Amino acid sequence: MNQPIAARGAEKQTSTFSSRATHWLQHHQREAKDSFGRLAQSPLSTLMTVLVMTISLTLPLGLGKLLDDASSAASGWDGEARLSIYLKEETPAEVQASVLARAQALPGIRSARIISSDGALEEFKQQSGYGPALDQLGYNPLPAVLEVFPKNDASSSEMTTLRDQLAQWPEVALAEVDIAWVQRLQSMLELGQRLLWAVGGALLLGGLLVVGNTIRLSIESRRDEIRVISLLGGTHGFVRRPFIYMGVWCGLSAGVLTLIAVSSFTAWLNVPVTQMASLYSSNFSLSYPSFGTSLAVLAGSSFLGWLGAWMAVGRHLRELES
Amino acid sequence: MIRFESVSKRYAPQFDALRELSFELPTGEMAFLTGHSGAGKSTLLKLIMLIERASSGRVIVNDRDHSQLKGNQIALARRDIGMIYQDHNLLDDRSVYDNVALPLIIAGMQPRDIPNRVYAALDLVGLKHRAKSQPFELSGGEQQRVGIARAVVSKPAVILADEPTGNLDPQLAVEVMNIFEELSRVGVSILVATHDLSLIARFRHRLLTLKAGQLVADTGASV
After folding, report:
1. Where are the domains of chain A?
2. What pTM, to 2 d.p., does this model score?
3. A151 touches chain B (CB under 8 A)
4. 3-state DSSP assignment of residue B61
5. What is the pLDDT of residues A113-134, one digit of tens each?
6. Which residues of chain B lie closer than 8 angstroms to A226, CB-CB?
7. Chain A: residue whose CA lies nearest to B185
8. Which residue in A191, A289, A290, B91 has a CA-CA distance of 20 to 30 Å to A9?
9. CATH (residue range A82-178)
10. Helix, strand or coil, per DSSP, at residue A191
């Protein structure tokens, strides 16, 4: 107790930039490790937090992937959209050929073909099963048809414009484009996208609040420690650091579980989806999260945890200062 | 160095904890701060520690105007002040060593330099052998000495002590005051808030007396 105080007294902390940077990194490492340990000390509450965050991430990610896959499939179907141009009765074959040549020369056309009135009748007989009845008619009521296939990226409005253009030709009796189903599908997909944003936003906000609440509880249990550190000269960054790492750990864990959950659901759903697609001669299947998507999910979920922790600690620090 | 320039502190709605307080404690001087409960001693210490802000006037500590400090500047200013609390403010989930090391960790000291400083501070208060103990395993007096070790470990320019000898027996109280005297001799400004008149009489340093928020006596001032 009575040891002399040799050359003690006020002393300024002096250190080089590199030593401070090293110390800063070491402190980050220690806090990252310690905060992981603190989470592990209360496994049940940590698990609950991570699971709620996982759910709030899995639903928007899973729905988003489903919509993406549906959009990809729908864009393939878009390519099959066609215009049916009914030519006037008695249009001679050479005029039909001329019309076909002119149509093929139009911009925005992928292909075109003529179905002669005889060919149309034969096809209708085979598909409808009314062959004998049609034979009783004694004449062919069907006109020759010019089938036009626009390019795959043609929009609904471009197809409508093309139809109006073809309808002006003197050989054309009627021009039709069946785009209602395309519009309906696109509307549904757009609705789905908007619902996804709304639901996803609400769920992510829920995740943010959950991690914020977890951090808040941790802050409550360490209130004295924060106060003492603050009185000893701990900066806001120093006080925040352990809680930020707790948030990031929760977010990162939720991100990993989200990827596992989405991949598992995709594998589970892919069996009936591929079976159904094969019935339509399609090789459509649901896609798994790509490497880029996985990285984005992990970064996003970590950010969510970081943000929740930042907000919770910030609020506490403001209370401490007031 | 601590300087108060016409400092007042008013708590809502109309309670004046301090009124037009002016004094200066130069570098290396030790002073006692006394007064009845509610006289304003704790408020004065809180203003120096930046726990509270003055309603008017200027509080200047180590050439920093405390009314101008914001955010992390407050944290940095606190690192130059060692505070010994009446209720110790030790962290029970950390060992004595870790409690004393905390100001050094916060200040960003190299980890390899920390043990020597911590053990020297603990040795100073006679608790080197309790380094691995938890605070709740110590007596009140020992906890107070850990608080003193924590306050001096970073060699601050100013030490504030709020009833530092309240939990100590007379012999230990004298030893603690001897430590403070040694620190003041090497340039540390020390302000000790106490009710202990026998201690004040024995050490005969400058005495600031507060009454109802006003400085009613300043005896033995060197400036």
Report:
1. 26-76+184-321, 82-178
2. 0.69
3. no
4. strand
5. 999 888 888 877 776 667 777 7
6. none
7. A9
8. B91
9. 3.30.70.3040
10. helix
